[in-house]
Every structure is written in C-alpha cells, then in structure tokens.
Write a structure and sequence with these properties.
The complex is a heterotrimer of chains A (503), B (266) and C (371). Chain A has 503 residues and is an alpha/beta fold. Chain A is built from 15 helices and 23 strands. An eight-stranded parallel β-sheet of chain A has the order 11-21-20-18-17-14-13-12. The longest helix of chain A has 26 residues. Chain A starts with 8 loop residues before the first strand and ends with a strand. Chain B has two domains: 90 residues, no CATH class; 145 residues, Pectate Lyase C-like. In chain B, helix 1 links the parallel strand 2 and strand 3. The chains are: A alpha/beta (503), B alpha/beta (266), C alpha+beta (371). The structure holds iron/sulfur cluster (2 copies).
Chain lengths: 503, 266, 371
C-alpha cells in the first residue's frame, strides 16, 4: 500500500551557498540530512524533519531554511490534515500517539480574554523603577491571626509560624524530572533560581549531586514511582511536593524507558541501570483523601516539620473541592496544573482532551477556599501554559499566590517547541541524555538566560503593579476587581469572578 | 450652620497694601492680588491667611514682594515667574510647584511635594519638609533651581530629580525621625545634586543614586546658597557651613537604559 | 434613593477631619463643622458627614441605630425585623431641618436597642453580642430593600447625606449635639453615584471611618473579609477599613498599633533591617495579613469609643496633619482646618507614611513609629 503521508516540513537548501561541510548531518538528531559520497548527492528525508531549526542555525553559510510543507491533503474543516495523519499513523502502527509539550488544540485562552486595569487621575500610578515595589511572596500555611506580646515599644511574636518558602518573585521553575531533561537544563534552572531568590522543582527523578549546592532553592518531588525518595533527599530540599497528577496527562502515570536510564540517572533515581522507570497512575498508598493526609504527615514527620509540603494536581472538573480537601488534609500549598501544561511525553489524546483551563481552576479554588474560611491554610500555585508576565499577573489577580513555569523556562534555555522531547533526541540539549547533544546546552549560559527571563518578567510585573497603583504583589492577589473580561459569556465571567469590560 | 465667606478688607501701611484674608475664599483673594499687581502695587501683606490655595500662582512679576502671615494653602506660587514670597507660618502641599523664577521664603514648615518640577528660582524653608520634596526638579539652560531646608526632609527627597540643587541642613531634628532625610533618597535621580549636612546611610539611597565627595565648586555653591538662606533667617552662616556635607548625585544620566529590550534584538 | 448595589467605585479627593477631647469633655458640633468647611475646596458636594461619640449619654448602654429608609414600607419591614431580634428601648425620628441644597430623600430614624436576654442564651445566635448586632446590621443592609443602617454603635451616631458638609450639618442640626470625639468628611467621588449611604463616615458598631483617596487593594481586602464573614455591600472601598479594624482589633485582639502594622506594614527592605525579635514579629504580621494590607493612596481616620487613629498609606500619597493642644487632638487633611478651630496649638506635625497617630482618652497622643 502506498504511504500517502505528506511531510509536515520541507528542508530547503540553497545549493549555491552550501559548501558541503556536512555540518547539518551532525547537527540533526533526526537523520534528515544524508549525503551519498559515491554519487556526491544530497538526500533530505523531509518526513523526518520536526522543525527544531537546529541545522538551519548551525549551518555556517546559512544555506538551510525549514518551511512548512506546501503539500497538504485537500482541505476539509472537520477532517483536518492532522486528523487524517493521526488515523493513518494509528492504522499503520496500532499504537497510541505519543507527543510532547502542551495542548495543541485551538481552545480559547482565558488569559487572552482578560484585561488589566490601570490608574488614571483618581489614583496615581506608581513608578516601579524609582518607588519601592514588592514582589516577595511567602508560600505556605499562615495562621488565622498573629499573637503579639507588646510592651511599650518592644514587640515579640508569640505565634509559631509554619514553614514557608520565601520567593523574591512569584515565579518558580516547574517540576521537570532529571531523565526527561538533562542535568545541564536542571543546573541552569537551579542556578537561576538561587540567583533570583526563587525555586525550582526536581520533578520525580530525584536530585543529581551536582544540584546539591542549590538544594535550598529546590523543591523535591514525591511521585507515585517514589524514585529517589529517600530521607536525605527530602531533608535536603527546601520543600516537598507530592505529585498526584499533571495537567498534560491527568489521571495517567508516566514511563521513562529503560534505554534512557543511564548510569547517572540510575544513581539519582536509585533504580537499576537500563530498567524502565514506571510511575503508576495513582500512588498506591493513596486511594482517598485520608491516605493523602497520611502521606503528607509522614513527610512532615520525616522532615521534622521543617519543610512545607505541597500537593500537585491536574486541573480537572471538580478541582475546587479536591483542592479544599488537599488543604484540609494538611498541605501547605496546592499546585494546580492547567490543561495547557507541557510535558516530556504524553499520549496525545490525554494531552489534548482532559482537564480544564488553569484560569477557571484558580478562580474556583480560590473562591472555594475563601468560602470555607481556609484560604490562609495553604497557598495556591498555578501552572500550565503561563507564557508571560501578563499571564502571571492575571493568574495572581484571579487568586494564585505564585506560578510555576515549565515550557517558558525551556524556551529560555533554547527549546524551540518542536514537541519531540519524548524521543530523547532534543537537538538543543534539553530533553536528552545523549552526551553529544547535552554539550549543546552550556549551564552557565542557560542559567544566565533563565535568570534573565525571571528578571525581565519581574520588572514587567512591577510595571503592571505600578500601573494598577499597587506597590506590593499581595494587593493584587485575588483582586479580581482589577480584571475585566472581553468577549466572555455570563457563566464564564461568573466562574472567573470578573466583570465584563465597560462595567 | 453656615459659615459665610467674607469680602477681603484692604488697607495701606507705608508702601504695603495690607489684605486681611480671614474667611476670604481663595478665588477672591487671588483676584485681588492680581488686580493690585496690575495696578502697579509691588508690596503686599496678607494677614490671617489660613489654607487659601494658589496664592501668587502664575504671577509674572520679578519685583513683587508678598508677605503671607498664616498658613499658605496648597500650590503656593505654582508656575510663578519672579515674585518674592515670604511666609510667616507654614506652607501646605506643592509650594513652588513648577515655579519658573522667584523666591519663596518660609519661616515655618512645609509638607509634601514642595518644589515639584521646579525649573528655576529659590525656595528656602526654615523648618522641616515632608515627602517627595524637590520631586522632578530640573534645570534648563542658565536656570538652576535651588531649594534649601533648615530642618529635615521626609522620604523620596529629590525623586526623579533631573537638575537643580537641594540642600538639607538638618539644624533641628525630629524626635521620631532624627535622620536628616528619609528613605528612598533621590530615587530615580538622573541630574542635579543633593547636599545633606550629615552622613547618609547607604541603604537609604534610592535607585540610581550615589554619594560623592564635595569639590571646590560644590563648596562655593554651598557657601553662596547657605549664605543667602542664613541671611533670610538671621543665622550664622559660618557656623552652619562648618560641618561635613554629603553629596548625592546620579550614577548615570540614563539609569534605566538597560531595562528595556526590543523583542527583535538578540 | 437607596438601592442595593455591589461594592464598587471609589472615593477620590476628599477632605477629612477629626477632634478628640482627651479628657472626654463633650464639645458642641460647631468646631468640627468649621473644620470641615475650611476644606470645602476639596469637595464637590456629593457627600458629607459627621460622626460624634458621646452624643447620647442618656441611652449610653444601648446600641443606637441610625437608619435611612426610602419609604414607609422599608421602615415597616425593618421594624418587624428589629422587633424580632432586639428589644427597642426607644425610637424617634432624627431631628432634621429642611435645607434647600439637599432633597429630603429618606426617612431618618433612630432606635436605641439592646439584645434581650432570651436571645443571648439561644445557641443558634452568635456567641458575642457585638457579632449579633453586626449580623443584624448586615441583614438589614442586605435583605431589606430601601433600608440602610448608617451607624450602630453605643452612645454615638453618624449623620451623613449627599451634599456639602455644611449643608449636611445644617440638615441634621449637628451643632446641637455634644460629643467628646467628632470626625467629618467631605467627598469628591468620581465614579459612584452620590447616595446617602455612600457618604462617609462609615460605621460598624463603635468603629467609624472617614477616608480620603482610594484603596486600590480593595478586591483583595474584600475577599479576605468575606472569608471572615463580613459582607461588603456598600458603594465604596472605605467600608473595608472599618471591617478590617473590627476584625483585627475587636475579634482578633490585636492592639491598634499592631493592627496598623498589619494594614500598612513597612517594606521588606525595612523589616530586614530591624533587630530581633521585632523582625520576626513584623515578618509574621506581613505574611499573615498580606491580604489585609491596604494599598493605594489613602489617608483615613478611624475612631471607636475611646480612640481616634489617623493612618496614611505606605508611601504617603495623601495628606494628613496631626496636632494637639492642651485638651484636644486634631487630625485633618489640611493644616488650615486645624488652625481654623484652635489657636493654642502645642504641637503640629505631618505623620510619616504608614505610622498610625493614636489618640486615646486620658493619654498623650503618639505617632507610633512602625516605618
Ligand atoms: S529536524 Fe531539526 S536539525 Fe533536522 S532537519 Fe529538521 S530542522 Fe534541521
Ligand atoms: S525540549 Fe527539545 S525536544 Fe522538547 S520541544 Fe524543546 S527543543 Fe524540542
């Protein structure tokens, strides 16, 4: 049977500019470029190209350009090219379609339908470059009230505070495991987090020894596979996150194929080299909320109540009562991962069809926690598809305390969102364990870029606060009065708790 | 209970026209002042002033001399161009706002944003001043505004300062805030200089500000400005000048140049 | 016109003033009216008001409810509710004059009430008497269309309406009352319809607030208060200030000074410079009360039965002047307003950003240095 499968991209090479240096062959991890030495002829396997653009940027004469393939199936609004290709792939292989990065279907983004307020005349905007502007955020449980002992001018605290993480900016690097990404990527983010005064998550793959110097800015993760979970690991990090689910694949587990379990990964995860690392869909010691509470307290006990414990869930339909249950179960923060969240590998069907938008999830979790009078028991960390400082500001105005960024951080490190992380062949040295490919990411330069991204967003956040006439991020949290919806329906506005523009 | 507004009572005392401003609305008071000046009067004495705003606003008259007894209201001499104003009492917010030329001499205290965006002339305040004093003061060609304060200043002194000179003498100190100036001193400064007759804690400095040694020309400027100030309030200039001063200046004239990037730039 | 509207809109440039007689001697309303009139250029006549403490000595132990009714129906319905919930000791119209500047839109009535014993023991009612009255106030404001509780404290009352403060004073005969503490407010609202309930002072129980500026953190504060059972149903952001003090001081037992630390905390940079144990205390207050923090340009005067507090925002974007004489403590937006009524000022100063000026009966006034 003919494989009638048009390629997504075509590789165009300017023959005059090409000097036959063969560089592109070495640069492309996907085997697109091929040179027949005998016939002295080039062959390009267009169908293998993922448009990572590596070869184009490495070609010394800039001879290569990657274009979208002009060849497509006859247009059809329902039977799109993608649908047809998926069916053909599955007919050929009988397999689940695997993909990476975030949801690709054209769902509307609520962030793009929300606009921020600004001061005009009646209240002065504040100039953040010159006036104090505070982004510091504490993540963790707060008391209902503080008891203070006062004598004349001296003042002493009598309430004992639960441990909190101190963030100098309300943006953290999301959990992405060592194994799914390289140590160079981890190191870049760890250094940047420490430099800027925020945190990164280890993901479920443990903490490589090279990260130890940054451990006080690292959040460790306890996932269903319990890889690397060890008393020392827990005590080393700044906080612990129990991962129940993730936005890109709610309700399903994970799988790091044995071929990626190198010696170093085996040591870090504490599993045999070359064996598959399987994360079950649920934690098999958590079948209900009481069990979650038991695990939370087991972790707190093991770390002598010195580390805040977070619980991460995917944003699903019932997210509000679940989050309330998590907070009541003793979590110091609930991490909500929206349906746009990225991943290193996920079945396409899950990535694209499960879960709800983070915007709606934040709004309803914040509201429910307030209704129950327990908003201060725990913080809300939002993640999944945060693309800019504006998204951060809107997430906070909807009720989040802080956000995690994953994809955005990787883009800062050089990722071009080619969506091939699961192949382990990342051309930019990020989602790979291949020693040759890993050399492409210099952790020093990576750290600089990741820190710069945080700094730039922080500056922008300050500018946003200034325009809102606020000088502290706390005053934006849940301040939905400073948001308006554009082109949203009544029920959507109700869920988000915002008014339509003009009202 | 209605409190009726009164008409101003006007009389003459030597070369002064004396206006009793008690209970007079500012509109009437200022109209009267403008009318008198237009008729050629050059010396005015305002009695019982209490909070009337905009006195001498936009007044263009370099040989006018206006005495104010009482509390001058907001925006005293805003946009003024030339007059000399002596206040025997306090001034409220915004005295000397965007003033172009002239002189304000205040025997009492001042509140916030004194000398806001001032472009020329002099303001001498004998007592203390409030927040954001000298904010966005600037100079233009040969115009260099000067603001001298005998007491202390609140936070954000010389914010965004783009030119001109501020001198804080700290001759008297507040019980609660003994420092010569508050926090975020000179934040966003990108021109001009502030002289403080005391040491300044480094972490009180705002963004883009630094301290610097005094040069000869600084000393010359100080002896001139402080000399004038002292003669207004019968103080001994030599004694006042005989102290260590700290000079605060901008680190750069474009302190925020690196803050912005073009999305296309690498 | 009384309507139920959601909490939006802000009060902008306004003038405020307050006098507290340190020895608790009662002063006629004349002074406060003069103070208010001195700042008339700050108002546009769409709201003015006064609150006086000590005005009802004969009924001092009862809650004095000042109510606005749009019509007789609203009044009847409110009275039904009152009869069900509290014992009415006395009720009467608030004496009024007709003034041409203010159309007589509302029936203004006062009730002196107490919580009867039979209710005090009933488990389904809230434990504390004050919470019980709070609940009653919220119920009237919330559920009875055309009724609004202007004040609900003991031995005090709020007089407010749409109009210039002097006309409001004239209408309510404010000069005839004698109080040991008075506060006043003239309003220049920008985008809220002027209505009587929306004028200042705002009151809940003994707390009254007048406010100049804007609480830009209003949405955050409101959600924080709602999580603690408060209902923000008025037309301005000022009410959150009254409720925050009620929550922090009355319900949670913080001192006025510590409450001020929670509401206008120093910047982190300043907290870091503090010595221990102060630093830990301030850090904990900021962490815990981050949602209570008031942000935006404002100056407020807050009063209860024995205290008057003036407070400015953290970077002092609105004016506030404090002064004291032998007998009295003054707070005002402008120095001139104080000088208008007091010739023998002992001390006059501009408090620093975020520092509360606390004047208490029988005590020296102090500016608490928290910044
Ligand atoms: S996959 Fe990447 S490196 Fe390979 S041809 Fe395509 S763009 Fe070039
Ligand atoms: S991490 Fe690498 S493989 Fe994954 S999308 Fe980015 S560039 Fe592609």
């Amino acid at each position: 049977m003919v494989r009638n499968f048009p390629p997504d991209f075509v590789v165009r090479v300017d023959k005059e500019a090409c000097i036959n240096c063969m560089r592109c062959i070495r640069e492309c991890p996907f085997g697109v470029h091929e040179y027949d030495k005998e016939k002295k002829r080039w062959k390009r396997h267009h169908d293998k190209c993922v448009a990572c653009l590596r070869c184009a940027y490495m070609c010394p004469t800039q001879a290569i350009s990657i274009e979208r393939s002009p060849m497509e199936y006859s247009p059809h609004p329902v039977w799109t090219n993608r649908v047809r290709k998926d069916i053909k792939t599955q007919a050929e292989t009988g397999a689940v379609i695997l993909t990476a990065m975030g949801n690709e279907l054209p769902y509307m983004s609520y962030f793009d339908r929300l606009v921020l307020d600004a001061c005009q005349v009646t209240n002065p905007s504040i100039d953040p470059l010159r006036e104090p502007m505070e982004l510091r955020t504490y993540i963790g449980r707060k008391p209902e009230k503080v008891e203070i002992e006062e004598e004349d001018s001296s003042i002493r605290l009598r309430t004992k505070l639960a441990p909190n993480l101190k963030l100098e900016t309300p943006i953290m690097f999301a959990h992405m495991s060592y194994g799914s990404i390289s140590i160079e990527a981890h190191l870049s983010m760890a250094r940047a987090a420490k430099e800027v005064g925020t945190y990164m998550g280890t993901g479920e793959g443990g903490m490589h020894v090279e990260l130890y110097p940054y451990a006080d800015h690292i959040i460790t993760q306890v996932a269903s596979g319990r890889f690397a979970v060890h008393e020392e690991y827990l005590k080393r990090g700044a906080a612990i996150e129990i991962k129940i689910g993730q936005g890109a694949k709610p309700g399903i587990g994970g799988h790091l194929p044995g071929k990626k379990v190198t010696e170093e990964i085996s040591r870090t995860r504490m599993i045999p080299e070359g064996s598959d690392a399987i994360s079950p869909a649920p934690h098999h010691d958590i079948y209900s909320i009481e069990d979650l509470s038991r695990l939370i307290y087991a972790l707190k006990e093991a770390t002598r109540y010195k580390k805040p414990v977070f619980v991460k869930i995917a944003a699903v339909h019932n997210v509000a009562p679940i989050a309330v249950g998590i907070i009541r179960a003793g979590a110091d923060a609930v991490v909500i991962d929206g349906f746009r969240a990225g991943t290193g590998a996920a079945p396409q069907v899950h990535r694209d069809h499960h879960g709800i938008p983070i915007e709606a999830a934040i709004a309803s979790v914040d509201r429910r926690l307030r209704e129950e009078g327990i908003r201060h028991w725990g913080s809300i960390i939002a993640s999944g598809g945060i693309r800019s400082s504006a998204d951060v500001a809107k997430a906070i105005a909807l009720g989040a305390d802080a956000v995690y960024i994953g994809t955005a951080a990787l883009i800062a490190l050089g990722c071009t969102v080619c969506k091939k992380c699961y192949t382990g062949k990342c051309a930019w040295g990020i989602a790979t364990q291949d020693p040759e490919l890993r050399k492409r990411l210099d952790p020093e330069e990576g750290a600089r870029r990741a820190a710069n991204l945080l700094r730039a967003w922080s500056h922008e956040l300050k500018e946003i606060l200034g325009a809102l006439g606020l000088n502290s991020i706390e005053s934006l949290r849940s301040n939905r009065d400073r948001l308006r919806g554009v082109g949203l329906s009544e029920p959507e506005l109700r869920v988000l708790g915002v008014k339509p523009a003009g009202e | 209970m209605e409190i009726p507004l009164r008409k101003a009572r006007v009389s003459r005392e030597d070369e002064f026209v004396v206006i009793d401003a008690k209970g007079v609305h500012y509109r009437e008071l200022n109209e009267l002042i403008n009318e008198l000046v237009e008729r050629g009067e050059r010396k005015l004495r305002l009695l019982n002033v209490n909070g009337q705003r905009y006195i001498a606003d936009g007044l263009r008259c370099s040989d006018c001399y206006i005495e104010i007894h009482g509390v001058a209201g907001d925006d005293l001499a805003a946009f003024a161009n030339g007059p000399t104003i002596v206040v025997y009492g306090d001034v409220q917010d915004g005295a000397g706002n965007t003033m172009n030329a002239g002189r304000i001499i205040v025997h009492g205290n001042g509140t916030d944003i004194i000398g806001h965006s001032m472009r020329g002339g002099e303001i001498f305040v004998r007592g203390h001043v409030g927040y954001r004093v000298g904010i966005h003061m600037k100079e233009y060609r040969e115009q260099v505004p000067v603001l001298v304060v005998g007491g202390t200043a609140g936070d954000f002194l010389g914010e965004y300062m783009a030119g001109g000179r501020i001198v804080i003498l700290g001759l008297e100190r507040l019980e609660t805030y003994p420092e010569i100036a508050g926090e975020w001193l000179a934040t966003g400064i990108h021109g001009g200089a502030i002289y403080l007759r005391d040491e300044v804690d480094e972490d009180k400095l705002g963004y883009g500000a630094k301290t610097e040694r005094l040069s000869h020309s600084d000393r010359r400027f100080l002896s001139e400005a402080v000399g004038k100030f002292c003669s207004c309030f019968s103080l001994n200039a030599e004694e006042v000048l005989n102290a260590e001063f700290t000079k605060v200046v901008p680190k750069s004239h474009r302190p925020f140049a690196e803050m912005y990037s073009d999305s296309k730039e690498g | 016109m009384l309507q139920k509207l959601s909490c939006t809109g802000y009060v902008r440039m306004c003038g405020l003033g307050g006098i507290l007689n340190r020895y608790g001697e009662r002063m006629p309303g004349r002074e406060i009216i003069r103070m208010s009139c001195m700042m008339r250029d700050r108002y546009d006549g769409r709201g003015g008001g006064f609150a006086g403490y000590g005005i009802y000595p004969r009924y001092a132990e009862y809650y004095a409810l000042h109510l606005f009714f749009r019509d007789e129906i609203a009044k009847e319905r409110t009275e039904e509710l009152l009869k069900d919930r509290v014992a009415i000791i006395k009720d009467e119209p608030v004496p009024m004059r007709r003034v041409k500047e203010i159309p007589q839109e509302n029936i203004v009535w006062r009730y002196f009430v107490e919580v009867p014993h039979r209710f005090r023991d009933r488990r389904e009612y809230l434990e504390k008497e004050e919470d019980y009255i709070t609940e009653l106030v919220f119920t009237i404001n919330d559920c009875i269309d055309g009724a609004f509780v202007a004040s609900s404290g003991k031995n005090m009352g709020v007089f407010k309406a749409t109009g210039m403060p002097d006309a409001v004073a004239e209408m309510y005969k404010v000069e005839k009352y004698r109080a040991y503490c008075w506060i006043t407010h003239g309003r220049f609202p920008t985008n809220t319809p002027g209505w009587w309930g929306g004028a200042h002072p705002f009151n809940l129980l003994d707390w009254s607030v007048v406010h100049n500026g804007e609480i830009s953190s209003y949405g955050t504060n409101r959600r924080y208060l709602e999580a603690h059972g408060y209902k923000c149903r008025l037309l301005t952001d000022t009410e959150v200030v009254a409720y925050l003090f009620d929550l922090l001081v009355r319900r949670q037992g913080l001192s006025m000074r510590t409450a001020a630390v929670a509401l206008t905390p120093p910047f982190w940079k300043q907290i870091e410079r503090m010595p221990e144990p102060k630093r830990s205390a301030f850090t904990a207050l900021r962490m815990t009360y981050s949602q209570a923090m008031l942000n935006g340009p404002f100056a407020v005067i807050i009063t209860n039965r024995d205290t008057m507090v003036g407070l400015n925002d953290r970077i002092k974007l609105r004016p506030l002047i404090a002064a004291s004489s032998e007998d009295c403590v003054y707070l005002a937006s402008e120095e001139a307003a104080i000088r208008e009524v007091e010739n023998d000022i002992e001390k006059l100063w501009a408090p620093r950003a975020g520092n509360p000026v606390i004047a208490r009966l029988n005590e020296e006034v102090r500016e608490e240095v928290i910044h």
